[in-house]
TrEMBL record:
ATP binds at G10, R72, T73, G103, E104, G105, T106. Homodimer or homotetramer. Keywords: ATP-binding, Cytoplasm, Glycolysis, Kinase, Magnesium, Metal-binding, Nucleotide-binding, Transferase. It is found in: Cytoplasm. One of its GO terms (molecular function) is monosaccharide binding. Pathway: Carbohydrate degradation; glycolysis; D-glyceraldehyde 3-phosphate and glycerone phosphate from D-glucose: step 3/4. It comes from Cryobacterium roopkundense. PANTHER family: ATP-DEPENDENT 6-PHOSPHOFRUCTOKINASE 3 (PTHR13697:SF52), PHOSPHOFRUCTOKINASE (PTHR13697). GO terms for cellular component: 6-phosphofructokinase complex. Substrate binds at T126, I127, D128, R163, M170, G171, R172, E222, R266, H272, T273, Q274, R275. GO terms for biological process: canonical glycolysis; fructose 1,6-bisphosphate metabolic process; fructose 6-phosphate metabolic process. This is ATP-dependent 6-phosphofructokinase.
Length: 342
Protein backbone atom coordinates (compact mmCIF):
# COMPACT_ATOMS: atom_id res chain seq x y z
CA UNK A 1 0.00 0.00 0.00
CA UNK A 2 1.15 3.53 -0.77
CA UNK A 3 0.14 6.09 1.84
CA UNK A 4 0.24 9.87 1.54
CA UNK A 5 0.74 12.05 4.60
CA UNK A 6 -0.12 15.75 4.86
CA UNK A 7 -0.02 18.38 7.59
CA UNK A 8 -2.54 21.19 7.25
CA UNK A 9 -3.49 24.34 9.11
CA UNK A 10 -1.28 26.02 11.68
CA UNK A 11 2.01 24.33 12.50
CA UNK A 12 2.34 22.65 15.86
CA UNK A 13 5.05 20.99 17.99
CA UNK A 14 4.81 17.22 17.43
CA UNK A 15 3.80 17.11 13.76
CA UNK A 16 7.11 15.56 12.76
CA UNK A 17 6.78 12.94 15.50
CA UNK A 18 3.43 11.84 13.99
CA UNK A 19 5.06 11.51 10.58
CA UNK A 20 7.95 9.50 12.02
CA UNK A 21 5.66 7.17 13.99
CA UNK A 22 3.50 6.46 10.94
CA UNK A 23 6.38 5.87 8.53
CA UNK A 24 8.35 3.63 10.86
CA UNK A 25 5.41 1.44 11.86
CA UNK A 26 3.94 1.33 8.36
CA UNK A 27 7.25 0.32 6.87
CA UNK A 28 8.29 -2.22 9.47
CA UNK A 29 4.95 -3.91 10.13
CA UNK A 30 3.19 -3.63 6.75
CA UNK A 31 6.00 -2.89 4.28
CA UNK A 32 4.05 0.18 3.23
CA UNK A 33 5.37 2.96 1.00
CA UNK A 34 4.93 6.62 1.90
CA UNK A 35 4.63 9.86 0.00
CA UNK A 36 4.86 13.27 1.64
CA UNK A 37 2.19 15.69 0.44
CA UNK A 38 3.68 19.15 0.61
CA UNK A 39 1.96 22.20 2.08
CA UNK A 40 -1.24 20.60 3.31
CA UNK A 41 -4.35 20.43 1.15
CA UNK A 42 -2.66 22.73 -1.36
CA UNK A 43 -0.16 19.99 -2.18
CA UNK A 44 -2.95 17.48 -2.67
CA UNK A 45 -4.81 19.85 -4.96
CA UNK A 46 -1.75 20.88 -6.96
CA UNK A 47 0.12 17.57 -6.92
CA UNK A 48 3.12 18.60 -4.81
CA UNK A 49 4.83 15.49 -3.44
CA UNK A 50 8.14 14.51 -1.86
CA UNK A 51 9.94 11.31 -0.93
CA UNK A 52 9.10 10.06 2.55
CA UNK A 53 11.02 7.04 3.81
CA UNK A 54 12.81 5.77 6.90
CA UNK A 55 15.89 7.87 6.16
CA UNK A 56 13.89 11.09 5.81
CA UNK A 57 12.21 10.69 9.24
CA UNK A 58 15.41 9.94 11.15
CA UNK A 59 15.51 11.94 14.42
CA UNK A 60 12.27 13.76 13.64
CA UNK A 61 10.51 13.32 16.98
CA UNK A 62 12.46 16.15 18.62
CA UNK A 63 12.10 18.58 15.70
CA UNK A 64 9.45 21.30 15.73
CA UNK A 65 7.39 22.47 12.78
CA UNK A 66 6.72 20.09 9.89
CA UNK A 67 9.08 18.82 7.21
CA UNK A 68 6.11 18.63 4.84
CA UNK A 69 5.13 22.26 5.12
CA UNK A 70 1.60 23.44 5.78
CA UNK A 71 -1.04 25.87 4.54
CA UNK A 72 -4.61 26.93 5.22
CA UNK A 73 -5.85 25.93 1.78
CA UNK A 74 -9.47 24.91 1.23
CA UNK A 75 -9.30 21.68 -0.86
CA UNK A 76 -12.72 22.34 -2.40
CA UNK A 77 -11.65 25.58 -4.06
CA UNK A 78 -9.66 26.24 -7.22
CA UNK A 79 -9.53 24.63 -10.66
CA UNK A 80 -8.00 21.41 -9.29
CA UNK A 81 -10.00 21.28 -6.07
CA UNK A 82 -12.90 19.03 -5.12
CA UNK A 83 -13.06 15.27 -4.51
CA UNK A 84 -13.07 14.14 -8.15
CA UNK A 85 -10.00 16.17 -9.08
CA UNK A 86 -8.16 15.16 -5.90
CA UNK A 87 -8.91 11.49 -6.51
CA UNK A 88 -7.46 11.79 -9.99
CA UNK A 89 -4.30 13.31 -8.51
CA UNK A 90 -4.03 10.46 -5.99
CA UNK A 91 -4.54 7.84 -8.70
CA UNK A 92 -1.87 9.42 -10.88
CA UNK A 93 0.61 9.22 -8.00
CA UNK A 94 -0.51 5.71 -7.03
CA UNK A 95 -1.57 6.78 -3.54
CA UNK A 96 -4.06 4.38 -1.94
CA UNK A 97 -4.90 6.32 1.24
CA UNK A 98 -4.12 9.57 3.03
CA UNK A 99 -3.29 10.46 6.62
CA UNK A 100 -4.49 14.03 7.22
CA UNK A 101 -2.93 15.67 10.29
CA UNK A 102 -4.72 18.83 11.34
CA UNK A 103 -7.23 20.62 13.48
CA UNK A 104 -10.92 21.41 13.21
CA UNK A 105 -10.76 22.90 9.71
CA UNK A 106 -8.54 20.14 8.33
CA UNK A 107 -10.63 17.36 9.82
CA UNK A 108 -13.89 18.91 8.63
CA UNK A 109 -12.49 18.97 5.10
CA UNK A 110 -11.29 15.37 5.51
CA UNK A 111 -14.78 14.32 6.60
CA UNK A 112 -16.36 15.91 3.51
CA UNK A 113 -13.82 14.23 1.24
CA UNK A 114 -14.39 10.79 2.79
CA UNK A 115 -18.13 11.26 2.34
CA UNK A 116 -17.31 11.72 -1.34
CA UNK A 117 -15.41 8.41 -1.43
CA UNK A 118 -11.78 9.31 -0.66
CA UNK A 119 -9.84 7.07 1.75
CA UNK A 120 -8.65 9.31 4.58
CA UNK A 121 -7.77 8.82 8.24
CA UNK A 122 -7.34 11.87 10.48
CA UNK A 123 -4.89 12.71 13.24
CA UNK A 124 -5.95 15.57 15.56
CA UNK A 125 -3.60 18.53 15.74
CA UNK A 126 -4.45 21.65 17.72
CA UNK A 127 -2.55 23.50 20.40
CA UNK A 128 -5.95 24.87 21.51
CA UNK A 129 -6.97 21.36 22.70
CA UNK A 130 -10.50 22.10 21.51
CA UNK A 131 -11.51 18.84 19.78
CA UNK A 132 -14.30 17.09 21.66
CA UNK A 133 -13.35 13.52 20.75
CA UNK A 134 -9.87 13.49 22.28
CA UNK A 135 -8.81 14.20 25.85
CA UNK A 136 -5.61 15.93 24.74
CA UNK A 137 -4.09 16.80 21.39
CA UNK A 138 -0.35 16.97 20.85
CA UNK A 139 1.10 20.48 20.82
CA UNK A 140 -1.09 21.64 23.70
CA UNK A 141 1.36 20.59 26.40
CA UNK A 142 4.23 22.35 24.63
CA UNK A 143 2.20 25.52 24.13
CA UNK A 144 1.29 25.58 27.83
CA UNK A 145 4.95 25.09 28.80
CA UNK A 146 6.02 27.99 26.55
CA UNK A 147 3.26 30.26 27.86
CA UNK A 148 4.06 29.37 31.47
CA UNK A 149 7.73 30.20 30.99
CA UNK A 150 6.76 33.54 29.45
CA UNK A 151 4.46 34.31 32.39
CA UNK A 152 7.28 33.49 34.82
CA UNK A 153 9.63 35.84 32.97
CA UNK A 154 7.11 38.67 32.71
CA UNK A 155 6.33 38.40 36.41
CA UNK A 156 9.89 39.37 37.34
CA UNK A 157 9.84 42.54 35.25
CA UNK A 158 6.33 43.33 36.48
CA UNK A 159 7.50 43.13 40.10
CA UNK A 160 10.58 45.26 39.34
CA UNK A 161 8.49 48.14 38.00
CA UNK A 162 5.20 47.64 39.82
CA UNK A 163 3.41 47.18 36.52
CA UNK A 164 0.39 45.16 35.48
CA UNK A 165 1.23 42.64 32.78
CA UNK A 166 -1.50 41.40 30.41
CA UNK A 167 -0.25 38.24 28.67
CA UNK A 168 -2.17 37.14 25.57
CA UNK A 169 -2.07 33.47 24.59
CA UNK A 170 -3.70 31.56 21.76
CA UNK A 171 -7.25 30.23 22.02
CA UNK A 172 -9.78 31.16 19.35
CA UNK A 173 -12.90 29.63 20.85
CA UNK A 174 -11.66 27.95 24.04
CA UNK A 175 -9.44 28.91 26.93
CA UNK A 176 -7.50 25.75 27.73
CA UNK A 177 -4.06 27.27 27.13
CA UNK A 178 -4.92 30.33 29.21
CA UNK A 179 -6.43 28.20 32.00
CA UNK A 180 -3.50 25.80 32.29
CA UNK A 181 -0.68 28.31 31.82
CA UNK A 182 -2.43 30.87 34.02
CA UNK A 183 -2.81 28.40 36.88
CA UNK A 184 0.74 27.14 36.44
CA UNK A 185 2.15 30.66 36.31
CA UNK A 186 0.12 31.94 39.26
CA UNK A 187 -1.85 34.52 37.24
CA UNK A 188 -4.07 36.88 39.22
CA UNK A 189 -6.87 36.57 36.64
CA UNK A 190 -7.53 34.34 33.64
CA UNK A 191 -9.77 35.61 30.84
CA UNK A 192 -11.15 33.03 28.40
CA UNK A 193 -13.71 32.97 25.53
CA UNK A 194 -16.18 30.88 27.52
CA UNK A 195 -16.42 33.48 30.31
CA UNK A 196 -17.02 37.10 29.18
CA UNK A 197 -16.02 39.61 31.87
CA UNK A 198 -16.47 43.36 32.34
CA UNK A 199 -13.52 45.71 32.53
CA UNK A 200 -14.82 46.66 36.00
CA UNK A 201 -14.40 43.09 37.24
CA UNK A 202 -10.92 42.85 35.72
CA UNK A 203 -9.88 46.13 37.35
CA UNK A 204 -11.27 44.96 40.70
CA UNK A 205 -8.97 41.91 40.56
CA UNK A 206 -6.04 44.12 39.56
CA UNK A 207 -6.62 46.55 42.44
CA UNK A 208 -6.83 43.72 44.97
CA UNK A 209 -3.42 42.55 43.83
CA UNK A 210 -1.95 46.06 44.03
CA UNK A 211 -3.40 46.57 47.51
CA UNK A 212 -1.52 43.47 48.63
CA UNK A 213 1.71 45.00 47.36
CA UNK A 214 2.01 42.75 44.32
CA UNK A 215 2.29 43.39 40.58
CA UNK A 216 -0.80 42.01 38.77
CA UNK A 217 -0.40 39.44 36.00
CA UNK A 218 -3.42 38.79 33.77
CA UNK A 219 -3.57 35.96 31.22
CA UNK A 220 -6.06 36.33 28.37
CA UNK A 221 -7.03 34.11 25.44
CA UNK A 222 -6.98 35.81 22.04
CA UNK A 223 -10.68 34.93 21.66
CA UNK A 224 -11.76 36.48 24.98
CA UNK A 225 -14.92 38.55 24.70
CA UNK A 226 -14.84 41.69 26.79
CA UNK A 227 -18.34 42.43 28.02
CA UNK A 228 -19.94 44.98 25.72
CA UNK A 229 -18.23 43.68 22.59
CA UNK A 230 -20.31 41.64 20.16
CA UNK A 231 -17.43 39.50 18.88
CA UNK A 232 -13.81 38.69 19.63
CA UNK A 233 -11.32 41.36 18.66
CA UNK A 234 -9.97 41.02 15.13
CA UNK A 235 -8.23 43.51 12.87
CA UNK A 236 -6.25 41.16 10.60
CA UNK A 237 -8.87 40.08 8.07
CA UNK A 238 -10.03 36.52 7.31
CA UNK A 239 -8.21 33.23 6.79
CA UNK A 240 -8.77 30.71 3.96
CA UNK A 241 -11.85 29.33 5.76
CA UNK A 242 -13.34 32.83 6.19
CA UNK A 243 -12.62 32.90 9.92
CA UNK A 244 -11.42 36.17 11.52
CA UNK A 245 -7.70 36.23 12.32
CA UNK A 246 -7.70 37.01 16.03
CA UNK A 247 -5.12 38.74 18.17
CA UNK A 248 -4.61 41.98 20.06
CA UNK A 249 -7.27 41.88 22.77
CA UNK A 250 -4.53 42.37 25.40
CA UNK A 251 -3.61 45.66 23.71
CA UNK A 252 -7.16 46.85 24.33
CA UNK A 253 -7.40 45.62 27.92
CA UNK A 254 -4.02 46.94 29.16
CA UNK A 255 -4.75 50.65 28.41
CA UNK A 256 -8.20 50.33 29.95
CA UNK A 257 -6.68 48.93 33.15
CA UNK A 258 -4.13 51.76 33.30
CA UNK A 259 -6.79 54.40 32.64
CA UNK A 260 -9.15 53.11 35.35
CA UNK A 261 -6.67 52.07 38.06
CA UNK A 262 -3.66 54.30 37.48
CA UNK A 263 -1.42 51.21 37.41
CA UNK A 264 1.09 51.27 34.57
CA UNK A 265 0.08 48.37 32.34
CA UNK A 266 1.75 46.54 29.48
CA UNK A 267 0.46 43.99 26.96
CA UNK A 268 2.48 41.07 25.62
CA UNK A 269 1.12 38.96 22.73
CA UNK A 270 2.91 35.60 22.69
CA UNK A 271 1.46 34.70 19.30
CA UNK A 272 3.30 32.13 17.24
CA UNK A 273 6.05 31.56 19.80
CA UNK A 274 3.59 29.07 21.29
CA UNK A 275 3.70 27.02 18.09
CA UNK A 276 7.44 27.05 17.60
CA UNK A 277 10.40 25.11 18.90
CA UNK A 278 10.89 21.52 19.97
CA UNK A 279 7.90 19.59 21.36
CA UNK A 280 7.82 18.55 25.00
CA UNK A 281 8.51 14.93 25.94
CA UNK A 282 4.79 14.39 26.54
CA UNK A 283 3.88 15.68 23.08
CA UNK A 284 6.60 13.60 21.40
CA UNK A 285 5.23 10.43 22.92
CA UNK A 286 1.57 11.26 22.23
CA UNK A 287 2.26 12.30 18.63
CA UNK A 288 4.28 9.16 17.95
CA UNK A 289 1.52 6.93 19.34
CA UNK A 290 -1.12 8.72 17.24
CA UNK A 291 0.96 8.30 14.08
CA UNK A 292 1.33 4.58 14.71
CA UNK A 293 -2.38 4.23 15.48
CA UNK A 294 -3.26 5.98 12.21
CA UNK A 295 -1.50 3.16 10.34
CA UNK A 296 -3.63 0.58 12.16
CA UNK A 297 -6.78 2.52 11.20
CA UNK A 298 -5.75 2.59 7.56
CA UNK A 299 -5.13 -1.15 7.39
CA UNK A 300 -8.47 -1.70 9.15
CA UNK A 301 -10.01 0.47 6.39
CA UNK A 302 -11.59 2.80 8.94
CA UNK A 303 -12.06 5.63 6.46
CA UNK A 304 -13.42 8.85 7.87
CA UNK A 305 -12.08 8.03 11.31
CA UNK A 306 -9.67 9.85 13.61
CA UNK A 307 -7.24 8.47 16.18
CA UNK A 308 -7.89 9.82 19.65
CA UNK A 309 -6.55 9.80 23.22
CA UNK A 310 -9.01 8.59 25.85
CA UNK A 311 -7.45 8.40 29.26
CA UNK A 312 -4.13 6.74 28.51
CA UNK A 313 -5.33 4.65 25.56
CA UNK A 314 -5.42 5.47 21.86
CA UNK A 315 -8.84 4.85 20.29
CA UNK A 316 -10.42 5.32 16.88
CA UNK A 317 -13.44 7.61 16.59
CA UNK A 318 -15.46 9.09 13.76
CA UNK A 319 -14.23 12.41 12.38
CA UNK A 320 -17.87 13.49 12.46
CA UNK A 321 -17.89 12.97 16.24
CA UNK A 322 -14.62 14.89 16.57
CA UNK A 323 -15.87 17.95 14.70
CA UNK A 324 -19.49 18.09 15.88
CA UNK A 325 -18.64 20.57 18.63
CA UNK A 326 -15.81 22.21 20.52
CA UNK A 327 -14.46 21.00 23.85
CA UNK A 328 -14.89 24.08 25.98
CA UNK A 329 -13.70 24.92 29.47
CA UNK A 330 -16.57 24.02 31.78
CA UNK A 331 -17.89 26.53 34.34
CA UNK A 332 -16.70 24.18 37.08
CA UNK A 333 -13.11 24.21 35.80
CA UNK A 334 -13.15 28.00 35.52
CA UNK A 335 -14.65 28.47 38.98
CA UNK A 336 -11.94 26.20 40.35
CA UNK A 337 -9.30 28.58 39.00
CA UNK A 338 -11.23 31.74 39.86
CA UNK A 339 -10.82 31.04 43.59
CA UNK A 340 -7.19 32.10 43.06
CA UNK A 341 -7.92 35.41 41.27
CA UNK A 342 -7.16 38.83 42.75
Amino acid sequence: MKIGILTSGGDCPGLNAVIRGAVLKGGRVHDAEFVGIRNGWRGLVQGEFMTLDRHSVRGLSRQGGTILGSSRTNPFEGANGGPENIQRTLDAEGIDAVIAIGGEGTLTAAHRLTDAGLKIVGVPKTIDNDLEATDYSFGFNTAVEIATEAIDRLRTTAESHGRCMVVEVMGRHVGWIALHSGMAGGAHAILIPEQPKTIEQICEWVEHVRDRGRAPVIVVSEGFLLAGLEQAHSHKGLDAFDRPRLGGISEIIAPLIEERTGIESRATVLGHTQRGGAPSAYDRVLATRLGMAAIDAIYAEQWGSMVSLRGTEIEVVSIADATIGLKKVSPARYDEAAVLFG
